[in-house]
Amino acid sequence: MTRKYLERCLDAQPDSPWGLRNRAMISLGYDLLARRSELVALQSEDIEYEPGGTLRAIIRRSKTDPFGMGRVAYSSVRSGKLISDWVNWRGADIEPLFCAIYKGRPINRRLSTSMVKLIIKEAVAAAGLAPEDVRNFSSQSLRVGAAQDLLRAGFDSAAIMRAGGWKSVSALSRYLEHAQQNVWV
Question: Which pLDDT value is given to residue 105?
Fold first, then answer.
């Protein structure tokens, strides 16, 4: 999900509690280059607002960090605003950053990883993509698209690896193999 699709998916979200949550989660997932397991594991205490409206997030554990050494990642101002809107609606007493919603009310229970996949698929469909294109999106699409956008923006492999928590260039290269970039411009 490159920036072009990201913006379409965010714009297609409904004006509802579910739309608030989904916009915030999709935007933050893209910015943090997060895996779906990392997104659902985020707790409210794992984010801090930075000067200028960005967020600093602590991703405490991941697939490549089984001992929980953690990594710090940062968001855009867009995600900072969307998270603020979501948390203001959700309330301060909910532990998971992204919680379930039942009958229009937040529930103090984190989302499942399969729910993240469903939210992304539904967002892409709501953005007007053809069903055959929707099938090509997965929960990894946020991570893949953000990495490709960072490469096109001129960031080197080390910076992208740090931002996304990759431990090897070979793992990152699988995410970047379909990135189209004209190096002659």
Answer: 96
**What is the rounded CA–CA span in Å between residue 131 and residue 124?**
9
CATH of the domain at 142: 1.10.443.10
Domain hosting residue 129, numbered range: 3-176
Which amino acid appears at position 144 of this protein? V
Estimate to the nearest angstrom the gap between the alpha carbon of 125 and the chain centroid: 17
Answer whether residue 108 shows pLDDT above 80. yes
Structure token pair of residue 151 = 């490469």
Where does the pLDDT of residue 65 fall: very low under 50, low under 70, confident under 90, or very high at 90 and above? Answer: low
Backbone angles phi, psi at 118, to 5 degrees: -65, -40
Structural domains of the chain, count: 1
Helix (H, G, I), strand (E, B) or coil at 56: strand
From the number of C-beta atoms within 10 Å of its C-beta (0-12, 13-18, 19+), residue 45 rates as exposed
Question: pTM of this prediction?
Answer: 0.89
The proportion of the chain whose per-residue pLDDT surpasses 70, expressed as a percent, equals 92
Within-domain flag for 32: yes
